[in-house]
Write a structure and sequence with these properties.
The protein is mainly alpha-helical. The chain has eleven helices and no strands. 71% of the residues lie in helices and 0% in strands. The longest helix is centred in the N-terminal third of the chain and has 48 residues. It is globular and about 85 Å long.
Length: 319
């Protein structure tokens, strides 16, 4: 009996041309069917997304370029109020949250991806981070209310809100950055070590630049989520927005924009508040305008951050 492993090509079994043609046609039909289904799913998602964005922008377009609406203070019982303090508070809280959460998340991700031993403690830490990343924001807000607002005595303040958002943001950022570092090919680590770099130098000068586009994308996505967050801030940053005096540098004054211990209502909280109370005469116009501004801010922020991320990656990797 001839050995099949050493059989010549002439002895290999041949497919029936008719069966092969049937097989090819069946594969082609399956491919067209799968492509059609996926195309329909993507089209439905895009149509739904375009409908939501279009509805918000069309209804709030009248306020998007209204300078008075964008800079004036809100009114509670009269029509014609603006969202100036809320707009500033949203960006200020986002900046503070990123300043706190990005370095902590980056350090934790580098340690877990490159230095942490593979043992029970590391597995438990990763499991805890994944659990925290799916924690409802209302729970984070209630914890922030009990700890930062009541226990620490900071009251409804920007600092309480920023720390609550940091707790909300760190697990998501850490997982994103860690995944980006782990996706860098092993050959780049080996090449760095082979050139005489230490592990830390390889991480800082090779791995982090290589993972930078994914890291920036993760930061952008988390920033968008933080910018539109409302539940966690209702219980920590408060639902009032004092009139701000940008010429005031007294950090203890409630009118000082940079005072960390003043209440700070954001755009998302403002939408929730005015719709809950229902006492603003031009409720629909203010709500639609605020939603449109919030959406445009997130879109612009994402576009700018993505461009900056690509530019940074190009500069660091010389590609």
């Amino acid at each position: 009996m001839p050995d099949q492993r050493t059989a010549s090509p002439a002895q290999a079994p041949t497919l029936d041309p008719g069966a092969a043609a049937v097989h090819v046609r069946r594969i082609a039909r399956q491919d067209r069917l799968a492509t059609g289904i996926l195309t329909i799913i993507v089209a439905l998602v895009l149509v739904l997304l375009a409908a939501i964005v279009g509805y918000i922008l069309v209804n709030g377009a009248g306020k998007l370029f209204d300078l008075s609406f964008l800079t004036s203070k809100p009114e509670q019982f009269r029509a014609g109020g603006g969202i100036g303090p809320e707009l500033f508070n949203s960006f200020y809280l986002l900046l503070l949250t990123l300043l706190i959460s990005v370095p902590i998340s980056l350090g934790a991700a580098i340690f877990l991806a490159e230095y942490a031993p593979d043992n029970v403690v590391t597995v438990a830490a990763k499991t805890a981070i994944e659990t925290l990343s799916s924690l409802p924001s209302i729970v984070v807000g209630l914890f922030g209310f009990l700890f930062f607002v009541l226990q620490m005595g900071w009251g409804f303040s920007i600092l309480s809100g920023a720390l609550a958002l940091t707790m909300f943001n760190i697990p998501i950022l850490e997982r994103t950055i860690q995944q980006a570092l782990e996706d860098v090919p092993r050959t780049q680590r080996d090449a760095g070590l082979a050139l005489g770099l230490t592990k830390w130098e390889t991480t800082i000068h090779v791995l982090v630049p290589a993972a930078m586009p994914a890291i920036v994308t993760g930061v952008v996505l988390s920033a968008g989520r933080v910018f539109g967050e409302a539940a966690a801030l209702i219980y920590t940053a408060g639902q009032s927005a004092p009139a701000l005096d940008f010429g005031c540098l007294d950090l203890t004054s409630p009118t000082c924009p940079w005072n960390l211990f003043r209440p700070a209502e954001t755009l998302a909280v403002h939408i929730w508040k005015i719709n809950s109370e229902g006492v603003v005469p031009d409720l629909s116009a203010v709500s639609n305008g605020t939603a449109a501004v919030l959406m445009v801010c997130i879109l612009v922020f994402n576009l700018v951050a993505r461009g900056a991320g690509k530019a940074i990656a190009r500069r660091l990797t010389a590609e």
